[in-house]
Design a protein that fits this description.
Blueprint (H helix, E strand, L loop, with lengths): L3 E6 L10 E2 L2 E4 L3 E2 L12 H6 L9 E5 H8 L14 E4 L11 E4 L3 E8 L5 H5 L3 H4 L1 E3 L5 E3 L3 E7 L1 E3 L5 E4 L12
Parallel strand pairs: 5-6
Antiparallel strand pairs: 1-2, 1-6, 3-4, 3-12, 5-11, 7-8, 7-13, 8-11, 9-10
Amino acid sequence: MDPVVVAVARSASHDFSKPVAPEITLLAGLGVAGDAHAGERVKHRSRVARDPTQPNLRQVHLLHAELLEELAGRGFALGPGDVGENLLTRGLDLLGLPAGTRLRLGGTAEIEVTGLRNPCAQLDRFQAGLTAAMLDRAQDGGLVRRAGIMAVVLAGGVVRPGDRIGVTLPPRPHRPLLPV
């Protein structure tokens, strides 16, 4: 199965969830048009409080639909946009991508993967136990963050559900994803 966009979402306010939209427009160097997290500089409230001049490495949040399905089997009722993602995908191991991977979306949009979303307490305020469900342990005991990945927009364009996702890995050696 080719990787595909399942749903797109955006919110002009800093709400936890984002309403699903028929399409979103990605703006080069900024993020999702009309989304509260769009901009060259960081927009995440806790990061702004620490240093508002740092670059925005969290312009686009991607989550894999397979995670929502797994969590549904564990009693969590989650739909597209519920945990704040802009792009819900299927058929792509987002968490296995190296930093610097480029994803082509729609006719012209291109994003570059910057790192992992770090699960936070807002998940538990949305549904009790969700933060722990978004975390796991690797075989070596290391923490695995499963709340999706973050990216910056390299080339703008419109993205819609059903759009295929093209993947270009960066040159080796690959860098693992770290929280951004």
